[in-house]
Amino acid sequence: NCKNVSKCRKKSSPKKRLRKAKRKTPVRKKKLKVEKNLKKEECVSENEISDPFHCSSCKVSFKRKSYLLAHLARHKTQKEFQCPQCPFKSQYKTSLNQHMWSHSDVKLFKCLECPYEAKTKLYLTLHLRTHSVEKAYKCSDCSYECNQGTSMKVHMLEHSNIKRFHCANCDYKTNRKGDLNRHLLIHLNLNLFKCTLCSFECKLKGSLKLHMLTHSDVMLFKCSFCSYECKQKSRLKMHILTHTNIKLFRCSLCNYEANYKPNLKNHMLKHTNIKLFHCALCDYKCNQKHSLKTHLLKHEEDV
């Protein structure tokens, strides 16, 4: 029968036989898929290793574009968001929002053991540690104790004789980069921070904050042993030491001991020949700012 023969020929055509052969070998097909997936994974791993997003300003590279964009923002010299109440500027709006809390009198977080109030939860957490009798960290070289590991690290630098940071303009040396940066301002005549209520100007932001307290009559901090009141927490801490015989700060060159760290710093200048302060009217030099102020009064008397 010719019709049956033609049907048989159609069924046994080369294309159909190839399709049937492919369907009969599923294992080979799976192997091909696995090989393709392996090639894709190799490409992905190579991209991850090479970090395809590169910074054009430096040699840093990143795995994701979002990381690169965040990094590029750091290269911007112009800070878009500025505080309307002080010279603070930031590249990020969130940083400005956090900063604005420093100008607010609203304190949402309150201590249950004393009248202390804080603007942030972090400050309250740090304050609560002051109520604990036993300090978590103790200095092995003196009687200093604290509740924060970072504070202990900073304190241990006081016992170190290694001065890693040197001033290029004078013989000043220190073991803290922040102290060197503050010292360098002495060699500049620029007062970056100005008071909006008077003619006071200063080089440090912290000095302006302390000055602003002079325009306020509110005494935020009170001594629990006497009627002493003050505007600064640091002053209260120093005052409380007067009720004890503990001398936390000791001179490494003599037997001098002090309750206050600034007193020890002033004392240490006596062991050096560094004269940081110079009189502009004569050749007088000294190592303490208040000594220079006292000296300048003599020139006013002469006038």
Automatic annotation (TrEMBL):
The keyword Hydrolase does not apply. It comes from the Eukaryota. Residues 1-29 are annotated as: Disordered. Keywords: Metal-binding, Repeat, Zinc, Zinc-finger. GO terms for molecular function: zinc ion binding. PANTHER family: FI01116P-RELATED (PTHR24403:SF67), ZINC FINGER PROTEIN (PTHR24403). This is Zinc finger protein.
